[in-house]
């Protein structure tokens, strides 16, 4: 029982530290004509360790990370990061801060820009008041009791055979 409990705790811990993956613009992707403010409001809050995935048409768009002033002006002349290769770009939100992304192909003026506020992960919920009660409830189930009884019978029979 202890190895199983350890495995479950490890699995829940690893799931809690891996972030969520968000496709920017959902099924519409990183394209003109998408209301990214609405998209952010639909998916927020964003947490440390989450991922943004931008899908776009190669040669038709790019993903440029900029500061707030450049975001407001749609100015890509001093990018923090600029990505235009391929058809997608995955970006990990690895700091608690505001992130700003624009398209430098002129679509920013049509709203092809997104601002993300990243927060720390909320603290985990408190454990149940009686954490040891759940495993013991298994002991009282009829199927578990029957399985244990069968196991003891088999062990006893093997022991009797070994003693002869």
Describe the 3D structure.
This protein has helices spanning 2-17, 36-43, 68-73, 133-139, 142-163; strands spanning 21-23, 46-47, 51-55, 63-66, 81-83, 88-92, 98-102, 113-119. With 164 residues, it is α/β, with parallel strands linked by helices. It folds into 2 domains: 18-119, Cupredoxins -  blue copper proteins (Immunoglobulin-like, Sandwich), CATH 2.60.40.420; 133-163. The strands form 2 sheets. A 5-stranded mixed sheet has the order 2-8-7-4-5. The radius of gyration is 27 Å and the shape is elongated. It starts with a helix and ends with a helix.
Which helices and strands, and how do they pair?
Elements: H1 2-17, E1 21-23, H2 36-43, E2 46-47, E3 51-55, E4 63-66, H3 68-73, E5 81-83, E6 88-92, E7 98-102, E8 113-119, H4 133-139, H5 142-163
Parallel strand pairs: 1-3, 2-8
Antiparallel strand pairs: 3-6, 4-5, 4-7, 7-8
Brief overview:
With 164 residues, the protein is α/β, with parallel strands linked by helices. It is 36% helix and 21% strand. It has 2 domains: 18-119, Immunoglobulin-like; 133-163.
